[in-house]
Structures are given as C-alpha cells and as structure tokens.
Amino acid sequence: MIIGRGLVAKAFASKWKQDRATVIVAAGVSNSDERGQAAFDREQHLLDGVFSHPHVRRVVYFGSCAVGNPDEPKTPYLLHKTRMEARVLADERGTVFRLPQVVGEGGNPHTLTNFLRQRIQSGEHFEVWARSERNLIDVEDVATLVTHVLHHPDRFPRMMPLADVRSTNMLAIVHSMEDALARRGRYSILERGASFPIDTTDCLRAADACGIAFGPGYLGQLVQKYYGTVRHAGF
Question: Under CATH, to which class is 2-232 assigned?
C-alpha cells in the first residue's frame, strides 16, 4: 500500500501498490520551511493510524539526510523529522530511509532543482552560498534501492541514508542546471554555508547490487535527465 500522490509515491506505485502488508508512507510534511504545528500533527496522526492496523507487517518512512548533519540548523521541520524517525523505529515493523534532495518529473515546487530552474529560466536574481553542499538523487533510484533493501532486510539496517556517494558544492549544482537549461542565471555568490556529509556505506552496497552508478557524472546526468533542453524540446 502506498500513502501519498506525489513524486516519491508515484515512483513506488508499480511495485508496491498492491502489497497490503507493506505500507510506503510517501505523504506528510514535504516543505523544509514548514513551521506550522498543524502540518506536523497531521503527519504524526497519519503514522499513528498506519501502525494501529494489525495487518500491517512493515512500514516505510522517508526521513531527511539533514537530520544526521550536525551543521544543519535545528529547524522545526528537522526537529519534527527527528521525532518521526524515532516514532517509526520504536516499532519493530518500521524502516526509515533518509533522503537528500530527490529529483524527478515535476514534483514539489519547493525542491532545490525546481527552484533553480525557475530562477534561471525567469532571469530572477538569487543568492548562491559558495561553501554550502547538497546531495541529489533520482527518484527512480530511490524506488529501486528501497525495493532491493526491503527484499533483503537481513543485509541492511532499519535506518539508512540513500544518497550519492558525495555531496556537491552548491555552485557546481547551479552550473549543472545552467548547462541543462542552456542559459545562465543571475546570482550573487556569498561565502557562506557548510559541508553536507552523509554516510553512504550501506547505500553503496545496495547501489552496487542494483547497478546504480553513483559518483562522478551522476549529478550531471541526473539534471540533464529531468531538466535538459533537448529532452524537453521533444527530441
């Protein structure tokens, strides 16, 4: 069963929609700038409802890689995600996959890549934090990796990040988007930000088994796949 209708939920539909014993929770608070308690309470009640069903044998929840980064400010969103991860892992049926920036067709307008595309295409000025890093992953790779891990639960921990082997400097991400859109953005570069380390040891084991090639070239291919001018010209 899949709860949700967004980018991540759609990626799991073909393989998990009919599985009544496994619940993929791909709904809830998705905007990292969210500060409203009502939104956090709704996700809490959603999870409580899922775990209350006795026929459910496995619950998959998507946390945030930022929860594990000591340099990330403890925003209301991250504090909420931390509580929800603990709630899921407190039940032996729960599994948590921490995600970085997920990239796919369409999706939440608040995502990093959708923000960059809008600003670059419109010519609207924005700021780039030169020392900041982010990590991007293809939503299709998320579905592939999660499926593999769920089919081999004895080989992986109940909580693991899914991410590219290394996070990428924000300026490099902006340049990748500029290359994909074939136009330059208007931005100021500020010497601000921090690194974004993620332990990808378990993820890389799953990626090797699934034939997913993280590392050099992954980011550029990912941005071209969903934002490249040739693809969106219909060729």
Answer: alpha beta
Query: Where do the H-state alpha helices sit in the chain?
Result: 7-16, 37-51, 76-89, 112-122, 139-151, 170-181, 201-210, 218-227, 229-232
* 197, burial (CB in 10 Å: exposed 0-12, middle 13-18, buried 19+): middle
**Cβ(45)–Cβ(33) below 8 Å:** no
Averaged pLDDT in 10-residue chunks for the chain of 235 residues = 92 89 88 84 92 94 90 88 95 97 86 95 96 97 98 97 97 97 97 94 98 96 91 48
Q: Name the phi and psi angles at 108, rounded to 5.
A: -60, 130
Q: In what order do the strands lie in the sheet with 22-25?
A: 2-3, 22-25, 58-64, 94-99, 159-161
Residue ranges covered by each domain of the chain: 2-232
Closest CA to 133 of 162, 180, 101: 101
The per-residue pLDDT for 145 is 98
Distance between CA atoms of 235 and 227, rounded to whole angstroms?
Answer: 13
What is the predicted pLDDT for the residue at 50?
94
